[in-house]
Amino acid sequence: MSERISRRQFIALSGLTGTAMAVSGCTINLQEPTHLEPYVVPPEEALPGQKVMYASTCGQCPAGCGILVRVSNGRALKIEGNPLHPLNRGKTCARGQAGLQVLYNPDRLRNAVRQDQRGAKNYRPLYWDAALSLLADRVKAAQPGGVAFYGNLIPDALATIVTSFLQAIGGQPPVLYDTLAAMDGRRTLASATAALLGSSTPNLPLFDIGQADILYSFGANFNETWISPVAYGRAYGQMRSRPLGTRGYFVQFEPRLSATAAVADKWVPVAPGTEGLVALALGGIIRELGLARAKDSPAAALFRAVDVRGIAAASGVAVEKLEELARAFARFPRPLALPGGGLAGHTNAAPAMTAVMTLNALMGQAAGPESPILLTPAPPDPAFASALPSSFADVKALIDRMSSGAIDVLFVAGNPIYDLPVATKFAEAMARVPFVVSFSYIVDETAVYADLVLPNNTYLESWGYQVVTPAGARPCISSQQPVVTPLYDTRQTSDVFLDLAQRVSDATRKALPWPNTVAFMQEQMAKLVGKDASYSTKTAAAVWAGFRQYGGWWPQDEARTQARQVAAPAGVMVPRPKLEGDPAQYPFVLYPYPSTLLGDGRGADQPWLQEGPDPITTASWGTWVEINPETAKELGLARDEVVKVISPHGQIEVIVYTHPGIRPDVIAIPLGQGHSNYGRYANRRGANVLGILAPAVTDAGDLAWAATRVRIEKTGRQQTLPRIENNVGVDFANQAGKFPG
Amino acid sequence: MAEAKQGNRWTMVIDLDKCTACQACVIACHAENNVPTVGPEQINMGRAQHWLRIERYWQGEYPDLRARYIPVLCQQCQHAPCEPVCPVFASMHSDAENINVQVYNRCVGTRYCGNNCPYLARVFNWFDPYFPEPLNEQLNPDVTVRYRGVMEKCTFCIQRIHAGADRAALEGRPLRDGDVVPACAQVCPTDAIVLGNLADEHSRIHEFVKSKRAFALLEDLGTEPAVIYLKGGESHVS
Question: What number is the average pLDDT over the span A543-568?
Answer without folding.
Answer: 91
